[in-house]
Amino acid sequence: MTGNLDRAIVVTGASTGIGRAAAAKALREGAHVFGSVRKQADADSLTQEFGDKVTPLLFDVADEPAVKAGAAKVEEILGRRRLFGLVNNAGIAVSGPLLHVDTDELRRQFEINLYGVHNVTRAFANALGADPERTGKPGRIVMISSVGGQNGSPFVGPYAASKFALEGYSQSLRRELMLYGIDVIVIGPGAIATPIWDKADDKDALKRFDNTPYAEMTKRVADYMLTLGRKGLPASDVGDLVWRCFTDPAPKTRYRILRNEFMDVTMPNLLGPRRVDKIIAKRLGFPDRS
Question: Of 268, 259, 265, 269, which is closest to residue 228 (Cα–Cα)?
């Protein structure tokens, strides 16, 4: 096993995208990475690319016993050392008009994006610093939220709701974990360019709503999301920011990382929510109800 165990981090959802990029950046900085994945093939991919500098952890964040088993493995390897950091990155996105999204789908969204984060955070809390018998400085937790954690867009309501919840969870957690000296930092990325945008299944995810009154609107949103995603920031930019969150002596509590902050944040704030509502309605082809 190589990599500095005094700077070991855990990254959930390390198979692709932001998780993979965060792991790669940490490894370049000499850290040892424990990367969680759900499939053995993804675990094999990590070891093939990074060798013994990474230790795959095989669990679904919604499976609490499996998460605890993964944490026990990490603690065994660390001995009495503390974790340098935890990246709560694993997540899914349920899309569709909220009136047509089954409650079970909404529940699954929260099982992964919020309850899964809770499972992981609790399981690794002792290694981060809640156990006073461990040596080293307390670690930090980086939560991967989204621009959707502060702005709810049409047809991604389940995802936005889970990220709004994560933002509140993170703020409360940060203030509670001051007891142990464990910091909690939120990153809210905009669109990130990852292979997901090239998968036909994802492109057609909203087609199941073709028999609803929202059919034409969801098609426009699907095309827009694909265009936005493919022009998004590289995942490596977020990976670099994650490492900065771990190493900056005075980090912010939340970071935005967006391709166009003026359009995504500044202009909507200047216009106000009702004006933004009208712009969205016009773009989506909603009838004028004024």
Answer: 259
